[in-house]
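User: Could you write out the 3D structure of this protein bound to FE2/S2 (inorganic) cluster? I've included everything you need below.
Assistant: Certainly. Input first, then the structure.
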Amino acid sequence: MAEKRKENAVVISQEKIAADIYSMWIRTEAAATAVPGQFISMYTNDGSKLLPRPISICEIDRENGSLRVVYRVTGPDTGTAEFSRMKAGDIIPVIGPLGNGFPYGKAEGKRAFLIGGGIGVPPILELAKQMKCEKKQIIVGYRNAETFLRDEFQANGEVYISTEDGSVGTKGNVMDAVRENALEADIIYACGPTPMLRAIKQYAQENGIECYISLEERMACGIGACLACVCQSKEIDDHSHVHNKRICKDGPVFLAAEVEI
Ligand SMILES: Cc1cc2nc3c(=O)[nH]c(=O)nc-3n(C[C@H](O)[C@H](O)[C@H](O)COP(=O)(O)OP(=O)(O)OC[C@H]3O[C@@H](n4cnc5c(N)ncnc54)[C@H](O)[C@@H]3O)c2cc1C
Ligand code: FES
């Protein structure tokens, strides 16, 4: 596959959708080939911040050549804070689409769980829009009542919500919502914090369910060259010849049984 090149994307619109959470649409060539579960590397215009920020693709509008990202501002002097100040017409350098994406075709004819937790919620939206399956059960976990993207999920499947403070849906985490609603699945797709993915992997293993998880790790190059983002795998990697997989290139989506988390 041709090496991905950096391009100047253009901000189409930006809005704040919850505390510290922003939704941005950009016009980018990456929209032509992007699939759910892939990400883009977004560069800041601040010379002191050289490394790009990997952000998942939340929605794809192929017709208009645009992508939506939904991201959390992690602190006052961060790259994500700089993104949040951008306005329509601003230029944002990006590389993408990167990574492999969710193998959503495997869900056809099956009962699926589409699980997102915290800032792992956004990529589940495009997955929900594109997936065709017998039963689409979207389980999303938030900290509190700021349940961003909820209406959009409701337009695309059966939605179950968990909140840490119990203000909406099940009190607890996404697995508590699965148990409280006695949900069942033949296949699972999930993105979120590592402890959540670990619990989902264990549940899938115990119940013999095929399970795909999207891992998050600090990245540097974002294109498979520097090994900053490796995780431990069961198989030996072709590139590094050790039990490693590069999350940016071999992932971020993996069959849960193939990786140690
Ligand atoms: C595949 C993938 C998809 C992601 N999708 C989203 C998303 O859709 N929405 C969202 O809000 N966040 C997402 N993240 C996390 C996001 O990349 C970090 O929150 C972000 O890079 C932090 O940058 P900053 O400018 O706020 O912080 P800074 O502290 O300024 O970042 C400093 C450096 O550390 C890196 N870094 C810091 N935290 C992380 C992290 N958790 N993961 C990777 N690199 C990190 C930054 O990229 C940067 O190079 C994703 C991460 C990965 C790996
Ligand atoms: S970030 Fe460089 S190999 Fe993944």
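Residues 39, 51, 53-56, 71-72, 74, 78-80, 119, 122, 216-219, 252 surround flavin-adenine dinucleotide (ligand 1) (CB under 6 Å).
User: Perfect, thank you.
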